[in-house]
Design goal:
22 strands, globular, disordered N terminus, 4-stranded antiparallel beta sheet, Methylamine Dehydrogenase, Chain H, 8-stranded mixed beta sheet, 1 helix
């Protein structure tokens, strides 16, 4: 009897444990639980969409401008050009390409990205570790800021600067102190995206030229995920430039006119600046 009683007790105990275990099973029994965008399972991240373009209009562009940074306000372009001994800050008339105002940098400085903010302009330099802040109307130098490493591209989202240095990382910086306030790693799926160059902030996304490629990445600033790729292959040839045999260099330079919802792109030493409209490619993920 004692043995039978113990057996019954053991069986009851085991049954109770089994019931507890059953109750503790997760309600979501999917073999592929959802993860955050930064988690290890990239299958939970939506694939980047693909875009091509339509040329709305094209405008003259100075073939002596090695474009590093570009911005627009109304029909006025602001442009930063590079190369030692040739680096400048420029104000340019959109319709004619005429340089209205120019400030030349020291021959020891290689100009890089540019952004407009408040009533000012900020211009980066490549290897000098210094950025220049100017009065937008007069190009008077107001002050300088410093940063480690290289400067490539810069954009302004209305509250802070976003900066690239050619790596897969974008850096957020305070607009007053220029101190780093955060950073994000840019990825397309599981692959890091390198050579992030000229930047522009467009409708809550970061647009980034990829150096030496005819592509622009559309990036979510919160996660660093590439949400779309803009393929601009053949853009310069669309203006018949293949017949002129020019010395143009790579695609670089993005400007967005928020008031008119107009997107402009150009390249280093390009003879034309293009206003384009994005077209979602057939078969692009939705």
């Amino acid at each position: 009897m004692i043995r039978n009683a113990c057996t019954v007790a053991v069986l009851v105990c085991l049954a109770g444990l089994a019931a507890i275990a059953a109750c503790s099973e997760p309600t979501n029994s999917s073999p592929h639980p959802a993860v955050t965008a930064d988690g290890p399972d990239s299958t939970a991240v939506a694939a980047a969409k693909s875009y091509t373009y339509e040329v709305v209009r094209s405008f003259p562009h100075d073939t002596g401008a090695f474009t590093q940074g570009l911005a627009i306000e109304g029909d006025t372009l602001f442009e930063s050009t590079g190369n030692y001994g040739q680096s400048t800050l420029r104000q340019v008339a959109l319709q004619t390409g005429e340089v209205v105002r120019i400030r030349r940098l020291s021959s020891t400085i290689f100009g890089e990205g540019l952004a407009l903010y408040d009533d000012k302009i900020i211009q980066l330099t490549w290897k000098s570790g210094v950025g220049f802040i100017y009065d937008r109307d007069t190009f008077e130098l107001l002050r300088s800021v410093s940063y480690p490493g290289e400067g490539w591209g810069i954009a302004y989202d209305g509250e802070r600067f976003i900066m690239s240095d050619g790596s897969p990382t974008l850096y957020f910086r305070d607009k007053v102190t220029f101190e780093e306030t955060g950073r994000v790693l840019v990825r397309d799926g599981d692959a890091q995206v390198r050579n992030l160059n000229e930047l522009e902030y467009v409708k809550d996304e970061i647009y980034a030229n990829i150096w030496q490629e005819d592509r622009i990445a559309r990036i979510d600033p919160e996660t660093g995920r590439v949400t779309g790729w803009i393929d601009l292959e053949g853009l310069l040839e669309s203006a018949g430039h293949e017949e002129t045999g020019g010395t143009e260099d790579v695609l670089n330079g993005i400007a967005y006119d928020a008031a008119g919802d107009r997107l402009f792109v150009t390249g280093k030493w390009w003879p034309r600046l293009f206003q384009i409209r994005l077209v979602e490619a057939q078969g692009s993920p939705r």
